[in-house]
Structures are given as C-alpha cells and as structure tokens.
Structure to design on (281 residues):
C-alpha cells in the first residue's frame, strides 16, 4: 500500500517535472537580461491622455523600485495641465526586458475627468513601447548618417538648462528617426543619452524586420509586436484593470497604478510560455 501511494505521488511529480523541463528547453529571448527604454506617449483624449501617460510613468517607476531597478528619465515633454505628451525612461536592472516586454501596446483609461461637470465617462489612451537597450555590437551607426542639432532647452529646468544650447536633437537620415534629449545641463551628456535611445530604436526596427520573416513565431508572442494593439483597459468607475490578450481582470486599480503589476506580468509570461509550448509540441 505504501509503495502504491508513493508511485501515484511520483507519477504526478513526473508530469509536473516534464512540463517544467519543456519550459526550460524553450528558446531564450536573447534580449531578456537587457536594460530597457520605456517610451510613453499620450494618445487620443487631449489633456486627460497626458495625465494618464503621467500615471503610467509613475506606475513603471514604482514597479522598478519594487524590483530594485534604477530608472532615469532621458527626455520628457510635458503638457500645461501637469500631464505628459511624451517621455522616454531608461530602466536598468537584471531581467528588466524579460518582465517589461509585455507592456508594449495601447493602454486605455475610462474615467470621469476632473474637468467634466456632467459626470460623463471619457475614454483616453496612451501608447507604451518597450525597447531593449542596444549595444554597439547590435547596431552600427555611421557618423555620416547623422544630423546633430543643438538648441536651448524648454520647460522646467535650472538656470543652466534653460539659458545654454544644451539640448540635442539627433536625426538618423536613412530612416528619418529623430531623438531629442534636454534633461541634462551638459550638451555632451544629452548627446550620449540621445545616441543610446537612437541605437535602441534602430535595433527595435531591425527586430521588427526579423519578426516579419517569422510570422508564426510572432503569433506566439504576447504583446511584444504590434504597438497599435489595444492591450489593457484601466476602468476607474469599476476599479478594475483588464488585460485583453489573456482576458484577465484585477480589481485592485489603485494598487496596480502604485506599481503592483507583478501578478499580471506573471500571467502574461505563463500564457506566452504555454503558446510557445503548443508550437513546440
């Protein structure tokens, strides 16, 4: 009887171990351990979209703090009402890309704006792009392909920031990509930051081209492809967050916006692994 009980237990363990082994045998994303750039842009919805973009920035900063990662705002364009038109933030930490890559896409918010007197619910959006940091071996940029302009920084800043030509705009002529950085007082530091962002955007474009040739592989990826895809809704009246890719809803909206997004990321990772296992089988 003891042996029979042990056999039954071990047979269950074999099944669990086989599943774990399959996951370990899945091809690793070579970018998983890299630092990332998170780009957030206000979408449809005017001032309300800008305010929502600012809340997403804060959410990723707080999540990074919980993971003991460091964050650095590379460039930010603010709106007059306290919102953000566009921001680029770097996140440095082990496995940052592996955890944040599923955040790329359109985030939608539904709530009553403070300026809405009739109490109507408005829908606004913000887009998020998560790019792995590119290294020199990943992307080679010819100096002749760059146009570098310097100008006086605008917006909030210290005396030096706003009175010297410290801001930098780099244009990659072959692709038309434009990167600006005006966060530092030093023109050299701003140029260095802008080049890092440019390399990562070019690397992302190269990865997109590769993915077009691997259409089947892209289907198994969760939210790391098309940035026009609506991935998540933040509904304030109901206090819920719904991720449309895995049909998961969490009723802890404020905690989620305070950076408590680990449960959602875990489920997205598990779903992605399950889809890849189906393809492998």
């Amino acid at each position: 009887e003891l042996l029979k009980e042990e056999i039954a237990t071990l047979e269950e363990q074999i099944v669990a171990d086989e599943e774990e082994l399959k996951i370990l045998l899945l091809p690793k994303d070579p970018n998983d351990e890299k630092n990332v750039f998170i780009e957030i842009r206000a979408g449809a919805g005017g001032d309300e979209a800008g305010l929502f973009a600012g809340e997403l920035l804060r959410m990723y900063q707080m999540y990074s703090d919980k993971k003991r990662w460091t964050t650095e705002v590379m460039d930010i364009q603010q709106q007059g009402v306290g919102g953000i038109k566009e921001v680029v933030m770097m996140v440095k930490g082990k496995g940052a890309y592996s955890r944040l890559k599923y955040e790329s896409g359109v985030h939608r918010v539904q709530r009553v704006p403070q300026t809405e007197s009739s109490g109507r619910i408005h829908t606004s959006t913000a887009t998020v792009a998560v790019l792995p940091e590119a290294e020199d071996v990943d992307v080679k940029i010819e100096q002749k392909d760059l146009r570098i302009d310097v100008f006086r920084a605008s917006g909030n800043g210290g005396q030096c920031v706003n009175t010297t030509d410290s801001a930098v705009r780099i244009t990659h002529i072959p692709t038309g990509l434009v990167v600006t950085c005006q966060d530092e007082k030093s023109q050299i530091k701003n140029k260095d930051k802008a080049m890092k962002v440019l390399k990562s955007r070019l690397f992302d474009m190269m990865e997109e081209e590769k993915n077009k040739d691997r259409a089947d592989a892209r289907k198994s990826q969760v939210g790391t492809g098309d940035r026009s895809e609506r991935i998540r809704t933040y509904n304030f009246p109901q206090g819920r967050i719904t991720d449309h890719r895995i049909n998961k809803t969490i009723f802890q909206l404020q905690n989620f916006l305070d950076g408590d997004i680990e449960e959602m990321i875990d489920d997205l990772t598990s779903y992605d692994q399950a889809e890849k296992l189906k393809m492998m089988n």
